[in-house]
């Protein structure tokens, strides 16, 4: 698959059930590659992202809409690029990840912690939520 490059800042939002947690900006030196994603210090996460309220609100709404439209359960994470020279028109949803990472450098547990949900509580919620669907 070949896609056009989308310039802008890397933003991401986790949805937990019906709740979008927050918006994180991912800052890396160059491409957001394997090293930037998984190596300690490979990237820096700004939680919450320092973006205008309308961008935060749009990311939260779009990520929840994507989660619902795709029939996601539990958690998902939607990634965005935002060209801050174009305002709201510069916000592009890239993808929704239906199995976001759970490593020490992963974004979803970090966002949960930001809104007051500890890692054990986050894991417990995921297990409990999954068991309720049986």
Task: Explain what the structure shows.
This protein has 134 residues and is of the alpha+beta class. The chain has a single domain (9-131), classed as D-amino Acid Aminotransferase, Chain A, domain 1 (2-Layer Sandwich). 32% of the residues lie in helices and 28% in strands. It is built from 4 helices and 5 strands, in the order E-E-H-E-H-E-E-H-H. The chain has helices at 34-38, 53-69, 107-114, 119-131; strands spanning 9-16, 19-28, 43-46, 75-82, 91-97. The protein has a 5-stranded antiparallel sheet. A hairpin with an 8-residue loop joins strand 4 (75-82) and strand 5. The radius of gyration is 15 Å and the shape is globular.
